[in-house]
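Researcher: Please generate the 3D structure of the following complex. Treat every line as part of one assembly.
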Amino acid sequence: MRRALLRGLCAAWMLVSLSAGGAETPRPDEDWRTGLKANISRARRENPAAFIRFDTAAAQVDALDAKKRGPLAAVSPGLRALGPEVMWPMVERLAFPPQETSRRPSRESARLAFQVGLVEATGALRDLRLAPLWKSLLEGPDTRPQVLRAVAGALARLETLDAANALIAASKRKDARGEAAMEALGLCRRLVATRALADALDARPEREVMRRLAKALGDAGSAWAWKTSGVQARSEEGAIRRVAAEALVRAYLDTDGDVRRAVSDALLRVDAPQTPTLIEAARLSAPPAQQAELDALAERLRHNPLR
Amino acid sequence: MPPSPPARAHLLPLLLACLWASACGPVADDDGGRPGSEDPLEGPFHPVVDLRADVNRNGIVELDNPTEDEDEETWTAERGAIFLANLDDDEDACPFSMDPHRLSDDALAQCHDAMDTVVNGESDLEDLARLRTVPWPEAPAGTVGSVIVSGAAGKKVRLFKRVRGNFISGGFPDTVFLSTAEVRRGVVLAIEGRDIVRDPEEWDGFADVVLTIGRNNPHDPVFTDTVRMRVAPVVLFHHMTPAWNVFVSKPAASIEANQFRQALGGVLADSGERMVYSEFAVDDLWAQDYFEPAYMSMPAPGGRQHVMQVHYRAPHVYNTDANAPLRAAGRIAFWLRGPDNAAIQQYQQGMSMASQTLNSFGNTEVIPPYEKDGVTYPLGRLFRGRGPDSRPDYQPDPSFTKMLEAQAVQPPIYVDTSWLFVDHVDETFTFLPAPTPRGWIALVADPALARRMLQDAQARGHGDAKLFAGLSWAYSIPAEASIAEVLDNPELMDASAVAALEIDTQLSILREETGLTDADIIRVPFLFQNASDGVTAYQPATLNLLSLTPTQVVAPDPHGPLIDGEDPFKARFEEALGAHGIRVHWVDAWAPFHIAQGEVHCATQSARQVPDVKWWEGGR
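Model: Done. Output below.
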């Protein structure tokens, strides 16, 4: 029976992969690195110009880093603009980085920006064949929070149940990986991920964690995001936004200051149809002082600037 | 004034002994008389103990004007003497290098006119506030005196005494001794601040200057007169006054930045205003961020202000190098140091690297003057971004914040900017003069409006119209995107939703604090996009502009879609500002700045004309 179950899971996994990943989907028993190498080699043969374009772009990251205004140069917009055809050169750099002595960019800050930009640009392509890469990097030796956040975001954007479950598992950890995974759960717009976020918020963790959870729930239920065609699990939209709104309304009265603001913002971003009813229900059972606070929330919702 | 009740000054016997021994500093008066040559003290002792400073703030210390003496021991909006922190370099004597290994960051900041014990020329003398003692011609022999700055201020000031036409400081910076002849004749003193207020717990900026007169006998009473003075605060400029000096970086290897500089130079030339255009040969593009012009002032004759320009160096702690912990380009603040130009550096180690962007001066702006609920802010208020309370390691440099707040005349308003990738208030707000009842308007980013405008264009059949035509994010790859593509991009839409709500919260704080109404607000549409940790402008943020004069601004071309031959984002902006008589000069900031998360304001800096309103009249 166990073997049968395993076969069933493998079949389901392959179905998901084939439906979204194209012909190069690795088999479950295949070493994913071998599969990536094969794809990279094929891409290099078929489109060497893409590798040259990527190398040319990589050579300019030091210059971008020198111009940066924020803490990190924003490399990903340019890499994204290179298009899907440079995915394999980017994957090669991520999965099989060159030796320390030969690598560019030269400055550490530029290398970090490049790493983050590569993950963001590749992750934006939402290619299911890269799921093992993202999981590997999430568990890998690079503990820099920016990289972990980008990797978790790339995994989340696949919006598969597999990605959701991997992130949920990682989010249990009490380290930077857990934090990155938890924040990224909101970008994995699946019901199971949203429920995990709601459960985490219901546990009333420390303030900063609550603030991040609220933001992640806002990501998951974002009304503006769901209005685009880019979100995949359309059938889960209603449930995701309702679960997010329920958790946020439950948390609202237990928060104050910046955390309450984050909860309030997330509720407005989700803008679930049930939210007024949820607020009213909470109001009925709340003491008078808290009723006024819920009235203020309802008033803000009525004037939601996103409508 | 009549002598104050006798007070025992514990220090006086020591000082008197010191005076007689002539060991504590110059004691000769203008005639070179020596107290030891006088006759022994005889008769009753009813001294004239009267220290005068410019309490009535007319720029002169008057002995014959009783208003100079009234309430001199207090300091209010109406009365009270003022002195400057003498942090400029009137003789251009301070060393400078952009190389921190020739001159470390800390060494760079230690040089200024108040570091030595002499007056550095005639210009320096003008930076010193005067005090005078009222002559007591009948002072009996044996009468001596001292002028001492009491309390914590004693370590923050230096006193000078005029001797034979020269101002001389003694062995104790906070003390001047008076001989009998000097008590009889009266002396002219000068005072300089050796620093601004940085930490009010250490020094609140007030200096009680105490004249003590007595006989050289420790058992006799002494008589005192106290004048309260205050060091001038550092005041940041708001946009209500015109710029007179525009600063930009001149990086060696950026063709696009050089094109921008040339374009900006052309705008300045066409503006019809006399303006200095200063270029810094540094590779750091962000002149708005690495330093900030400001000023200090004290009363001058004729109702004028004697002004010292100030340049703050931004407290970006970027490195572990002991010689150079700070962002290199910030050294420009010290390159600008010179006659009537001070430079100030203040920083604290230990905050997170990620939080350093909060220390940029693009994240410290000034809301113009206003009144709300009977409270006036005649110099406006600082407008600063910070992180949420739940992130104590993600806040602006605490020591710099303490120093800014200690200036007191521009109480800050804080909003959360941590949701932005660059974290600066100038990404979402700016303030411009306008002929309205308030006198100014607030330009506020509005991504929801941008979305509605694009939706409207799409609904009218322009979904294929391209934003950013002919431009690239980087690597010469086209950046153009159709309206339909933009509106169907979940990342762009959600980033813009995040921004819209965060800006709504920022605006609610601003409304609450300032009383802004919808009539005072111009909504500026542009979308946001995700960056690695936060959101940043997707379309050029036209409100991130350089305000040249009350009627002219330089703004980044939004490169919006062309619809019926017109960019609606450009047209809307021109129309909104034009309604207030403001002309927009467009410049292309895309390649040098927008793709690196900045616009025109970020890439420029400006020193502005000092407002007519005097900080000391503001009641703070």
